[in-house]
Design a protein that fits this description.
The protein folds into two domains: 200 residues, Alanine racemase (TIM Barrel), CATH 3.20.20; 85 residues, Beta Barrel (Lyase, Ornithine Decarboxylase, Chain A, domain 1), CATH 2.40.37. Helix 4 packs parallel to helix 5 and helix 6 runs parallel beside helix 7. Helix 3 links the parallel strand 2 and strand 3. The protein has 315 residues and is α/β, with parallel strands linked by helices. GO terms for molecular function: diaminopimelate decarboxylase activity.
């Protein structure tokens, strides 16, 4: 966190505890943005007391902030009816998303903020995680800038993160240069029409993870028995819960492949839950073709990214 702070990054915080952690890492309050789609009054007060800007997620939050902190500068997250991602559970925009104020209620939000003497200094959207299509981001930014036109005097337009990496060999990397050119064109058009130039910034992005050493995990069935293998490995969905939650795909490779024909293999964890399987898709178990494995072999679960550690339960 200190390295990111020195590099000029902001910190996205979602609880009073994360505010304290970010402050301990040296982030000043004006480089924190508080998010939370179910923030309580106490949570909002904790952010206000620390001087942290709140990214309002709902009309209810907007109303409560207006009653408690008139004159405060806020940002507003909008659901701009564009979603994307590698699984329905990680899509955070669109008609089924719980996040943000519907962009069709932008005028209502503006009226409510003005009545409560809240200054809308930023607008924000987020469409999902693992997005690889530049056009999807461009459509999201175009919709968000349509909303931004209704809020003169903005300091910031935050188009969220979710930039993906290829998890499967057949997937193509996001064309970042092309995305940059398309976003620049949209932004310059907006600035020319509005006579303003708010900061345009991405929000929380996915941090790509390359190959990492992980404890060996067994294949199910075959020789030797699963019982022996379970005693010889020490990882499970307590370390990487994404496959169990929504069938996320992670390439699995043997650190030192053995010669021999690849075999359909199911890689499981050591937790006493039938869902503790790393080779799981959206609709159930999906065996992988892996080289022959023996007890004690080291394998790599690739591209675990930003969320494996954050979602892992720890004492």
């Amino acid at each position: 966190m200190r390295i990111l702070r020195r590099a000029g990054a902001w910190a996205d915080v979602v609880s009073p505890g994360e505010i304290l952690l970010a402050r301990a890492a040296g982030f000043p309050p004006d480089r924190l943005l508080y998010n939370g789609n179910s923030a309580s009054d106490d949570d909002l007060r904790a952010a206000l007391d620390q001087g942290v800007r709140i990214n309002v997620e709902s009309l209810s939050q907007l109303r409560r902030l207006a009653a408690r902190a008139p004159g405060t500068a806020v940002s507003i997250r909008f659901n701009i009816h564009v979603g994307g991602g590698h699984h329905s559970h990680v899509i955070t925009g669109g008609p089924e998303s719980k996040f943000g104020i519907d962009w069709e209620q932008a005028d209502e939000a503006r009226t409510m903020a003005a009545a409560g003497r809240l200054r809308v200094a930023g607008v924000h959207c987020h469409i999902g995680s693992g997005v690889l299509q530049a056009e999807r981001f461009v459509q999201a930014v175009s919709n968000l800038l349509t909303v931004a036109r209704r809020f003169p005097g903005l300091e910031q337009v935050n188009f969220g993160g979710g930039i993906g990496i290829p998890y499967r060999l057949e997937e193509q990397e996001l064309a970042v240069d092309r995305l940059g050119a398309l976003l620049t064109a949209e932004y310059e058009r907006f600035c020319g029409e509005c006579g303003a130039r708010p900061a345009l910034c991405p929000g929380a992005g996915a941090l790509p993870g390359g190959p990492r050493r992980h404890p060996a995990v067994p294949r199910h069935g075959g020789e030797p028995s699963a019982e022996v293998l379970v005693r010889r490995h020490d990882t499970g969905f307590n370390h990487l819960i994404r496959p169990a939650m929504y069938g996320s795909y992670h390439r699995i490779e043997a650190a030192e492949p053995r010669p021999g024909e690849e075999q359909p293999t199911v890689v499981t964890g050591n937790i006493c839950e039938s869902g503790d399987v790393f080779t799981r898709g959206e609709h159930g178990i999906e065996p992988r073709l892996l080289p022959p494995l023996r007890e004690g072999d080291l394998i790599a679960i690739r591209d675990t990214g930003a969320y494996w550690y954050a979602t892992a339960p720890r004492p």
